[in-house]
Amino acid sequence: MLTKRIIPCLDIKNGRTVKGINFVDLKDAGDPVELAAIYAQNGADELVFLDISATEERRKTLTDLVLHVSEKINIPFTVGGGISSVEDVDNLLKCGADKVSINSSAVKNPQLINELSAKFGSQCIVVAIDAKQIEGNWKVHLVGGKIATELDLFEWAKEVETRGAGEILFTSMDHDGTKNGFANKALAKLSTELNIPIIASGGAGNCQHFVDTFIDGKADAALAASIFHFKEVEINDLKKELETHNIPVRI
């Protein structure tokens, strides 16, 4: 059985790590280079770096910062924010990224997924989907959750898989930062209907929430930010807890 992955996330704004609730009320959470080094040393399986204001500010990802982070870690490194072309991905891979995450640009130009997958391989392409429930239906949102679309979460997820995405990073905007647990019903549906790995994001508050998302949500990986940044949960302790529930992890 494949091991489940624990992934800290660095949300970056103005060169600093930030964290909010429901995508707003952002607070400083530390220096991304320092945090990245700590996570690599303390058992993280991968690291995600999201330049959360790049799309809104219509600029490219902070490549210098990506380079500095990559020099401090020895685990797989996914970078997202402001990516809209083959050239953007090529630059980020040269700066040390192993994978890239695309979100708004994929919705605006779905063919981009095909192009990137063909050029770099599906294993390199993560499609991030931010969604929230509106009148009982999960709707995809863009530009850091600021713009609602009519896209259905599950239909869009199926499309990105057929276009060549290697993984989906699903963030529940309703759960983000609440520390009340992941959106496990939606995650389980995604995991059941798709054949590519699903990364759970939004809602982690304690070790039990990770147990629940791996068992009930059928997630392949779980991403969290504030509980790791503020040392509410240590990754090594979390993995020991997961082992007691017979959830396979890399120790």
Approximate shape: globular
Sheet-strand content, in percent, reads 25-35%
CATH architecture descriptor text: Alpha-Beta Barrel
**Helix count, DSSP H or I runs of 4 or more residues:** 10
Specify the CATH class: Alpha Beta
Number of domains: 1
Report on this structure.
The structure is a single chain. By secondary structure, the chain is of the alpha/beta class. It has one domain (5-244): TIM Barrel. It has helices at residues 32-41, 63-70, 86-94, 104-108, 111-120, 153-163, 184-193, 207-215, 226-229, 235-244; strands at residues 5-13, 16-21, 24-30, 47-51, 77-80, 99-102, 125-134, 137-142, 147-152, 167-172, 198-201, 221-224. An 8-stranded parallel barrel has the order 1-4-5-6-7-10-11-12, surrounded by 6 helices. Strand 1 and strand 2 form a beta hairpin. The longest helix is centred in the middle third of the chain and has 11 residues, at 153-163. The protein is globular. The model has no long low-confidence stretch (mean pLDDT 91).
Task: Describe how the helices and strands are arranged.
Blueprint: E1 5-13, E2 16-21, E3 24-30, H1 32-41, E4 47-51, H2 63-70, E5 77-80, H3 86-94, E6 99-102, H4 104-108, H5 111-120, E7 125-134, E8 137-142, E9 147-152, H6 153-163, E10 167-172, H7 184-193, E11 198-201, H8 207-215, E12 221-224, H9 226-229, H10 235-244
Parallel strand pairs: 1-4, 1-12, 4-5, 5-6, 6-7, 7-10, 10-11, 11-12
Antiparallel strand pairs: 1-2, 2-3, 7-8, 8-9
Précis, in short:
The protein is an alpha/beta fold and 251 residues long. 34% of the residues lie in helices and 28% in strands.
